[in-house]
Write a structure and sequence with these properties.
With 203 residues, the chain is α+β, with helices and mostly antiparallel strands. Helices cover 54% and strands 19% of the residues. A four-stranded mixed beta sheet has the order 2-5-1-6. A two-stranded antiparallel ribbon has the order 3-4. Helix 2 packs antiparallel against helix 4. The protein is globular, with a radius of gyration of 21 Å.
Length: 203
């Protein structure tokens, strides 16, 4: 009887811990998402040809954006510059697609999108909704590529490589808690320890 009572209490503690962790993670994700703008390129399909085309579009659009965004000093600046240049981004992408012998349509837009947990360099961004500059090639059903436009993790140092300088920019924009969270890579160690303990008690 006592064993069942203890298991019940521990199970309740476990459920409360999971709930609190979930709520805290959601609040933290929302706080992070309010401070960044992502860059998202979706391929037409997962064929090797479409994936290669996606990277060529990414490179040409990236070269264009790196110059336009060099002086962006805030998230609002970055979003406004991206929004003003949507027609040019579409034109550049279309030219690449045509040069490569394809006739895919392409769209560029600023959207609030649901992302799964994603790692970029040393940083793991939690799943949730983020504002993103999205370039969709054709059906947009292939594997995607992404980076962070603001703060600039895309074009610092070597293009599309996260270096120390870009990491410092991210640390300035985020709070200490937010910055630590995306470096933790999804740590649910406490919850799993409780679960393992419950399993041992029940045996």
């Amino acid at each position: 009887m006592m064993k069942k009572y203890v298991i019940g209490i521990l199970a309740a503690v476990f459920c409360c811990t999971i709930l609190l962790n979930t709520i805290q993670a959601q609040v933290l994700q929302q706080s992070i998402s309010d401070k960044i703008l992502r860059f998202h390129v979706l391929a037409n399909s997962d064929s090797s040809e479409d994936q290669e085309l996606k990277l060529k579009v990414r490179d040409e659009v990236g070269i264009y954006l790196s110059g336009r965004l060099a002086d962006a000093s805030s998230l609002e600046d970055c979003e406004e510059i991206a929004r003003e240049n949507l027609p040019e981004i579409e034109q550049i992408a279309s030219e690449v697609i045509e040069e490569e012998g394809y006739d895919y349509a392409v769209t560029a837009s600023l959207e609030n999108c649901l992302f799964p947990e994603k790692t970029y360099g040393s940083y793991t961004f939690p799943s949730g909704n983020y504002e993103a500059l999205r370039v969709v090639i054709g059906e947009g059903e292939g594997q995607n590529w992404w980076c962070v436009l603001y703060p600039n993790l895309c074009f610092s140092g070597s293009m599309y490589a996260v270096d120390e300088a870009s990491g410092e920019k991210l640390s300035v924009e985020l709070t200490d808690e937010e910055y630590a969270a995306i470096l933790k890579n999804g740590d649910y160690e406490v919850s799993f320890k409780i679960l393992k303990f419950l399993n041992r008690v029940a045996e």
